[in-house]
Amino acid sequence: MTANTTVLAADTNWSIIGPNMLRAFGDTLWMVTVTMLFAGIIGLAFGMLLFVTRRSGLLPSGPLNTFINVLVNFIRPIPFIILVAVMGPITLMVVGTTVGSNAAIFVMIIAASFAIARLVEQNLMAIDPGVIEAARAMGASPWRIIRTVIIPEALGPMILGYTFAFIAVVDMSAMAGYIGGGGIGDFAIVYGYRAFNWEVTIAATILIIILVQAAQLLGNWLSRKIMRR
Q1: How many other CB atoms are there within 10 angstroms of residue 54's CB atom?
Q2: Where are the alpha helices (DSSP H) in the chain?
Q3: 32, 67, 175, 209: which has the highest count of C-beta atoms within 10 A?
């Protein structure tokens, strides 16, 4: 008779697992919030520069536009888990370690910044050129056009773009568990997948789904409210 080699998880002790899962969820919220704060600003700056430095832009600059384009095209396609490894030496130099939540946040900011830059550029490209030309004909300065025309015109679609970026960052935070980044992804791997406890894995997955759905609903609501003005 052959031995039964199936590994079964013991009954889940939610009095211990529950608080740990909530702490991990809080860690995920922290990582995502910090990443979106910094990457949102950096990505907006790069995306705006890509738009205004085009040949037909407000501040045309071929060399600067080409440099940013090459940089975005170089970083953006790299899968996050590979970017973590490639950025190892830089992460060590800046953060002082290549493991843990701070290291994960640093790489997440880099990855998200260039993704957001492209999203911002694409949304700005959808603006009616006639609106910008009208402002230029009235003698408005480039900064005034950016502040009073470009950003208000693109704000609604950009909110949807940032919502998409938020969801992508949540996905990154889950993968950060593989480098000990903490958060709900690390929790699901340690207490769920590696412990063969599918109950914990499913519970962690549901928490992530709730977070993503809440962000999507909020983004859709804000975008509709702004575009109806």
Answers
A1: 18
A2: 14-52, 62-75, 80-86, 88-95, 101-125, 129-137, 142-145, 151-175, 183-187, 198-227
A3: 32
123 CB neighbour count, 10 Å cutoff: 21
Token digits of residue 99: 């493991």
Residue entry with tokens 């039964």: 4
Q: Which of 124, 110, 136, 109 is nearest to 53 (CA)?
A: 124
Give the span between the Cα atoms of 165 and 47, in whole angstroms.
14
DSSP 155: H
Chain-centre distance for alpha carbon 221: 19
Give the position of tokens 């709730």: 210
Q: How far is the C-alpha of 99 from the C-alpha of 6, rounded, in Å?
A: 33
φ/ψ bin of 212: left (φ > 0), alpha (ψ from -120 to 50), beta (otherwise)? alpha
Phi, psi of 228 (to 5 degrees): -85, -5
pLDDT tens digits along 147-204: 888 988 888 889 999 999 999 999 888 887 776 777 888 888 888 877 788 888 899 8
Specify the pTM. 0.86
Query: Helices 88-95 and 101-125 sit at what angle, rounded to 10 degrees?
Result: 110
